[in-house]
Amino acid sequence: MEILLASLMMIWGNLTASNPDASFEQLIQASLDAKNAIVQTDPVKEVDPLIPVNKMDPQKDAPVVKGIYVTAYSANGSRMKTLLQLLDDTELNSMVIDVKDDRGYITWKTGNPELEAMDTTEKIIADMPLLMKTLNEHKIYPIARIVVFKDTVLAKKNPEYSFVNPDGSVWNNGKKPPDSFVNPYVKEVWDYNIKVAKEAVKAGFKEIQFDYVRFPEGFEKRADILKYKKDERSRIDAVAGFVKYAKEELQPLGARVSVDIFGYAASVPAAEGIGQDFVKISQNVDVISAMIYPSHYSTGWFDSKVPDAAPYATINGASIDTHKKLESLEKNGLKPIIRPWIQDFTASWVKGYIKYGKHELDEQIRALKDNGVDEYLLWNANNNYTPGVSYK
């Protein structure tokens, strides 16, 4: 704007110097002609908000990550001793620790006055510096897990950030206990989660892993019933926009960005209902972590009657689909590290399930290796991990 004004002042000066009797109307017309000339020689380019950011890995010295999920309660309690021993005794080398949990609570006192004023902190990790010191002593690569849009705490405190029923109540999914979500269209929700992420980086975490980066399951069935803020963007672009924003904000701090995503998202077209597009999300992350638990696939997937009972076949099929889905990004140098979540729990709710133990873990890891996938994360909600597994 300043350049344009300066140019117009120069034009007016030149015109009045060459033609002192020029009328006001002539000056205005000359200015408009000049402005048009300036615009034509320096056109405004259309910018796609989802064009990938520079994918320079901010953690080039990171190890080949083989990790486990750790709740904030485990990180702060007696179970941590057992988990540290597991990593000391095996090739496992990383912990994914809840810093913003499934309820929406920030799990340690960040010292950030804006976050603490939100009253959404539940101090579960009593001494974060001590925790980070311990992880460093055991040469453990620290990853901070942040549950983004599933956030019952924030939804209750700020219904305008959430989805509201026709009767004015905040929507929940009816589970026990019920979960509420916040709205991916709301920029304040983005900024809130990025603030948490930045505090986690300050605390010493090398990577921020965002989970529940989506709308609620089945949202398309209630999208026209619930009241919530939205704009012209599709749900897919709203979610992918958050991921890009997170990458732009965290990469300069030296932190990797990873995202958890449904495993089947690699095998199907974009999940428009929940706003997850495997490729659009992957192009703006350093690591993509598909949750390819065999128990999460229904009858017929990968030619298995019960995918849960066929751990090798299921992980093999999911890995092949993941590579195929990311072929376009690989050609453009945008393919992220593939680091899936695999199953270290028994899914007793699945018809035809099998008990998971050493053999089932070994089979999943073998399938990953056969597909050139060296990194993975183990999920067990209670942090009880199977002994004797070969992680080589």
From TrEMBL:
Query: What Pfam families does the entry give?
Result: DUF4015
Occurrences of domain DUF4015 (ranges): 67-385
Which InterPro entries has this protein been placed in?
A: DUF4015 (IPR025275), GH (IPR017853)
Name of the protein in question: DUF4015 domain-containing protein
Q: Which organism is it from?
A: Paenibacillus eucommiae
